[in-house]
Specification:
The complex is a heterodimer of chains A (about 170) and B (about 120). Chain A is mainly beta and about 170 residues long. By secondary structure, chain B is mainly β. In chain B, about 5% of the residues lie in helices and about 50% in strands. Chain B has 1 helix and 9 strands. In chain B, strand 2 and strand 3 form a beta hairpin. The longest helix of chain B is centred in the N-terminal third of the chain and has 4 residues. Classes of the chains: A mainly beta (about 170), B mainly beta (about 120). Chains A and B meet through strand 1, strand 4, strand 9 and strand 10 of A and strand 1, strand 8 and strand 9 of B.
Chain lengths: ~170, ~120
């Protein structure tokens, strides 16, 4: 009788043990804004006094990609160079001309970024109001003095691409 | 899907969370928050940590290191400590890629990501 009772109670408990099994829930938080550096730029030297990233001048435009998972959380702030981070000694002033613009989009609504951008000094701000990927290109041109030739050497400049939470 | 289809040598920088929350630290009068940096830029080994107010003035803070050395594809947790009396000023916590001079190409792209304290 006691044996039967033990067996019966075990049979009742077994499914209960199975029910109390833990079910893990795993979640990963990923960044809502990721900046990809797609193409580092190269200055072309179309004439002795000009350094330019434009393809027609033999340069390569720096291209940066922003991936935004959700809209309205970040703005892109891209600062074009207004000085060289390293260069040979320069005795005259350098005139900088920069243009930051949309290069490619994954959503047609992003084309509004070109018209809605805010430009001040050498910085361009764009509200990332559409989720998806957007590519920005930076045109940078440096002209030395008045028809002067840049001294020989390597010239380096930095484009800063920032993603600022709003 | 679109992102998965994009190929080529692209390098990324991530900084989490977007909106960090400060909590009490083990030091009296000091608050802290935990941030996470992920380096997917092969050519970058260092990121500088900074804290700013809403006018982009720097705010003094403490951390294990302000110049974070991080390998490619590595994730690093960084604690940011701020004095409790400065907490109301803290608006942005940022990391910016730092480039070694010998590794710099002719026109390099520095990346900066800023989280906002609300």
């Amino acid at each position: 009788m006691l044996k039967k009772l033990i067996v019966a109670s075990m049979a009742t408990l077994m499914p209960m043990l199975a029910i109390s099994e833990d079910i893990p829930i795993v979640g990963t938080v990923t960044s809502r804004c990721v900046i990809y550096t797609e193409t580092p730029g190269v200055y072309g030297n179309p004439s002795p006094g000009v350094l330019s990233t434009a393809a027609v001048d033999g340069g390569v435009q720096p291209i940066v990609r922003y991936d935004v998972v959700q809209a309205g959380f970040y703005k892109a702030v891209i600062t074009a160079p207004n000085s060289f981070t390293s260069s040979p000694a320069l005795s005259d002033t350098v005139k900088w001309t920069n243009l930051i613009d949309v290069s490619r989009v994954t959503d047609a609504a992003m084309s509004a970024y070109s018209t809605n951008k805010r430009v001040y000094n050498n910085t361009t701000e764009i509200d990332l109001s559409v989720p998806g990927s957007v590519w920005f290109k930076a045109d940078s041109k440096a002209e030395y003095g008045v028809n002067k030739a840049f001294p020989a050497g390597t010239y380096r400049a930095i484009v800063t691409a920032a993603c600022i939470a709003v | 899907m679109c992102m998965a289809l994009i190929g080529g040598d692209v390098y990324a920088h991530q900084f989490l969370p977007t909106y960090p929350k400060f909590q009490y630290s083990f030091i009296d009068g000091v608050m802290y928050t935990k941030m996470q940096l992920f380096n997917k830029r092969k050519e970058v080994e260092y990121y500088e940590l900074s804290v700013y107010d809403d006018n982009w003035n720097k705010i003094s803070f403490a951390s294990e290191t302000k110049l974070i050395r991080i390998s490619y594809l590595q994730t690093k947790d960084v604690n940011v400590y701020v004095k409790k009396q400065d907490l109301f000023k803290v608006t942005y916590i940022c990391t910016e890629s730092k480039h070694q001079r010998e590794n710099v190409q002719v026109a390099v792209i520095a990346t900066q990501i800023c989280s906002k304290v609300k």
